[in-house]
Design a protein that fits this description.
heterodimer; A: mainly alpha; B: 490 residues; alpha+beta; five-stranded mixed beta sheet; 14 helices; 23 strands
Chain lengths: 318, 490
């Protein structure tokens, strides 16, 4: 008997992937920032993250100063902060709970345990000396989740929605990283000191887990447009926006060809349009001005795609 | 002989029937029981020491929590996941005992289905005076919408849970029929899984009846009662109120075991009196709905208009025979505690057989002699409100304070029809791991019967255990736990 995937479950699986991916990215950013922000300019790095996520106002409600401790509390422990790690994992678990009969027991158990562990965390666990280690552990747990999913999730429609969600979230996160890096460079008092700038690009590449891959394929000195090119268009780099869009496209095509989902209506043209725009953009130009607007536009397109999917496939419009 | 202390050395069933050792007079003596598989298992248990047992119990509890085998308590936007406390000492039923339970449950389910068909069709049993008219027609769970509606196979109670206790003489007695949405079967299957993992040494080469084909049997039974038009393969779904329901884990579990979609009301809609679910490729026809929401929330057009859990138009599709609901609408009449009292008479009336499983003696306070007897013997009786579940509102006469007895006497006189009274059953016990060691705790048993065209009973069922010393209340809402229930092949 053939049971088609319920629209609501497609959405749950899509968001399960996105929230876990989000938690992983955030953990990596905090890990890298924690390690690189020990100097007197450190608070600026956290400020950049807060501004990037448009969190400053909510942050100020509970914290007076931007410090490693307050930022870590906000981004790791705060269950009421919708951009915290614990919140992302909680949402991933809620989505997993809804589709628990469709995902593997191993996937569920691991998320359930991770969630229980995060809820137990307290102030002692996020002191500066432990923060990087903790974030490393969380990142690894998220990666274990990805591995378990790869190894155990039945490859039906839900599977395609899962990996599509992951690809879209990765594209979105990489675009945020680029924006954070750009902001840090701008906030930095040494904005025009090329060495200081370079360290910002280095942190950015580390935050995207792309530093070594970049070094293997590029010259020693970092040119901003090359770093941008790597993060936005880099072929073979799993977190570049273009790679993620290609993957999302492949999963959409699979949903169309194997499962009869109407993906033309569901935003496939939006994905393809975004990819074409990326390729056509001269990165030299946006580095010298308009990078933020450019990234903003990429994010708007990704959001538009998700809304289109929600409307036409996830049943918001039935 | 080993000098180590044996696990059961200090165990004392305190004069109750023991599910492991047998009748009080047999306990501790060698008998036929001990020469059988039960004896083998007792011997193995006995050789475990308390420390090992506690360690394994901790491992099992942690596993339950990690697997998320929990019921969820929601308060002030915080969700708290609790596991149903699990006792690692199994309850064991001999093949012979099980035969009695199994045939008795089948008989009871058959009578329940005939009775329900009758009250929604010819009402012969009412005309013949077997059950008082007003008890059925005036019952708040009687659904006039069901009058004249024909159901596939005449099956109303697709999933039945019959609560059974064992008296001091070892005889099984029915305490309650659950004909609406009996829950707990997921614990039976998960408990077994857990026991096999935690105590592989205990079951080594002992023939136990398996429980893991429950999902398959249930799916088959539900497909058997699909509407005629469903064609080759019926689309069966499980309808849940959603993740905020305390039994959500069980809904997930059953949907997974059956491999069917777990839907909520918002995933379904009715068009031209047919039910559809919203899938990623558009609407798909639904034939059978195993619903885990009660009648009142099924269809806002017919029942509670404020309900958002159900599906508008569902009852119309149901009445037209375009979809099967399991359990049927209106089965609540049959698991009413007042109707329960008439079950032995209904078994004789509909099946022309003697009941295999007796009721606990029941005095119906709606009847003058029942009320008179109850008022005269309040101190010796357990008095239950007929409309409550979960053990609420129950007065246990022998243990009640004088003031509570006075209060109940007043309530009985004011509204006698709301009560039944039963003698206090000296529930059987089972050795149970407690903070003090291995102690006797009272247990009951809920076997599950699945009915499509025929009835099948899951071998074993849910053994609930009152974890508090001396307590007779086994409900999970009042601190009860569960045990794995083993039925021996022979």
């Amino acid at each position: 008997m053939k049971n088609n995937l319920l629209a609501r479950f497609a959405e749950n699986i899509f968001w399960l992937a996105r929230y876990m991916e989000r938690a992983e990215n955030l953990a990596r950013i905090l890990e890298v920032t924690g390690a690189h922000s020990r100097d007197d300019q450190g608070h600026q790095d956290w400020t950049a993250i807060l501004e990037m996520n448009a969190d400053m106002e909510r942050f100020r409600e509970h914290h007076r100063r931007v410090t490693v401790r307050s930022a870590a509390r906000f981004y790791v422990l705060d269950q009421d902060n919708p951009t915290s790690i614990v919140f992302a994992v909680m949402m991933a678990r809620e989505n997993a709970r809804s589709v628990r009969h469709l995902i593997s027991t191993e996937m569920w158990t691991q998320i359930n345990m991770l969630h229980a562990r995060l809820k137990e965390l307290g102030g002692r666990d996020i002191v500066p000396t432990r923060l990087a280690g903790l974030c490393g552990d969380i990142k690894e747990a998220c990666q274990a989740h990805t591995g378990i999913t790869e190894g155990t999730l039945y490859q039906d429609e839900g599977w395609s929605f899962y990996w599509m969600g992951k690809a879209i979230e990765r594209a979105d996160q990489t675009s945020r990283l680029v924006d954070i890096g750009h902001r840090r460079a701008t906030l930095s008092g040494h904005a025009f000191d090329s060495l200081a700038l370079e360290s910002h690009w280095t942190v950015m590449l580390h935050s995207a887990a792309g530093y070594q891959a970049f070094c293997r394929t590029h010259r020693v000195r970092m040119h901003p447009s090359e770093v941008l090119d790597f993060l936005l268009l880099g072929r073979r780099f799993p977190r570049s926006i273009a790679t993620c869009l290609d993957e999302a496209h492949a999963f959409m095509a699979r949903l169309r060809d194997l499962h009869g989902v109407d993906v033309e209506r569901a935003g496939l043209p939006l994905l393809d349009g975004l990819k074409a725009r990326l390729i056509a953009t001269r990165l030299e130009d946006v580095v010298n001005g308009g990078l933020h607007d450019f990234i903003d536009d990429v994010q708007r397109q990704l959001t538009a795609f998700t809304s289109e999917l929600a409307r036409s496939v996830f049943g918001h419009d039935f | 002989m080993s000098q180590r202390t044996r696990l059961l050395a200090d165990y004392d069933p305190q004069g109750f029937y023991c599910e492991l050792l047998g009748a009080p007079e047999e306990c501790g003596r060698s008998n036929s029981r001990q020469a059988s598989s039960i004896g083998t298992i007792i011997g193995r248990l006995d050789r475990l020491n308390l420390k090992t047992l506690r360690r394994r119990a901790r491992d099992a509890e942690r596993e339950l929590f990690n697997l998320g085998i929990t019921f969820t308590v929601y308060s002030e936007s915080q969700s708290i996941d609790r596991i149903l406390p699990f006792d690692v000492l199994p309850r064991i039923l001999s093949a012979e005992d099980w035969r009695t339970v199994e045939t008795g449950v089948k008989q009871r389910i058959a009578a329940l289905n005939l009775f329900l068909h009758d009250i929604y069709h010819g009402q012969k049993a009412l005309k013949d005076g077997v059950v008082p008219r007003e008890l059925v027609l005036g019952n708040e769970n009687f659904r006039p919408e069901m009058v004249g509606v024909d159901l596939p196979g005449g099956t109303y109670v697709h999933i039945g849970g019959i609560d059974i206790v064992r008296d001091v003489d070892g005889r099984f007695k029915v305490l309650e029929d659950n004909a609406r949405t009996p829950s707990g079967v997921s614990y039976v299957l998960e408990n077994r899984q857990l026991m096999l993992r935690t105590f592989p040494d205990l079951v080594d080469r002992v023939a136990l009846r398996r429980v893991n084909d429950y999902g398959l049997r249930l799916h088959q039974a539900l497909a058997e009662v699909a509407p005629d038009g469903a064609g080759g393969e019926a689309c069966v779904v499980l309808l849940s109120p959603g993740i905020f329901n305390s039994a959500y884990f069980e809904h997930v579990f059953l949907a997974r075991e059956m491999g069917i979609p777990l839907v909520e009301g918002r995933d379904l809609f009715v068009e031209e009196d047919r039910v559809f679910m919203k899938t990623v490729t558009g609407p798909q026809r639904v034939d059978v709905i195993y619903r885990r929401i009660s009648d009142a929330f099924l269809d806002p057009d017919v029942f509670n208009p404020k309900s958002v859990l159900g599906v508008r138009g569902l009852m119309r599709a149901y009445a037209r025979g375009n979809v099967t609901l399991a359990n049927a609408v209106g089965t609540g009449v049959a698991d009413d505690k007042a109707v329960y009292a008439y079950m032995p008479r209904l078994i004789r009336y509909f099946l022309d057989e003697e009941p295999i499983l007796d009721n606990v003696d029941t005095h119906i306070c709606a009847e003058p002699e029942g009320l008179a007897y109850t008022l005269d013997h309040l101190k010796d009786l357990v008095v239950k409100p007929v409309g409550e579940s979960g053990g609420y509102g129950v007065l246990i006469g022998p243990r009640a304070k004088a003031a509570d007895i006075v209060k109940r006497r007043r309530e009985l006189k004011a509204d006698p029809a709301n009560y039944i009274a039963q003698p206090m059953v000296r529930l059987s016990v089972c050795p149970t791991l407690t903070a003090e060691g291995i102690e006797a705790r009272h247990v009951d048993l809920r076997p599950y019967a699945v009915t499509g065209r025929d009835t099948w009973v899951l071998p074993g069922g849910l053994t609930r255990v009152a974890l508090t010393k001396g307590s007779l209340v086994v409900n999970s809402s009042q601190g009860g736990g569960s045990k794995d229930t083993w039925v021996l092949e022979k």
